[in-house]
Write a structure and sequence with these properties.
Helices cover about 0% and strands about 20% of the residues. It is built from no helices and three strands. The chain has one domain. The protein is mainly beta. It has a three-stranded antiparallel beta sheet with strand order 1-2-3, with no helix packed on it. The N terminus is likely disordered.
Length: about 50
């Protein structure tokens, strides 16, 4: 299931917010279609080191 909302999804090429979803998005800046499978949906959490 797609956890990223359309407002949070960004174009992998130009990082503009994407319209549409949840399966197919549209980048107005690049004028291209981006599929949800091509987006990075992983949440990046910085690693903490204990002292």
């Amino acid at each position: 299931m797609n956890n990223a909302s359309p407002s949070a999804a960004r174009c992998p090429r130009c990082t503009t917010r994407l319209d549409g979803g949840p399966v197919q998005f549209y980048c107005a800046q690049c004028r291209r279609t981006v599929f949800a499978a091509d987006l990075d949906h992983e949440v990046r959490i910085p690693l903490r080191r204990t002292a």
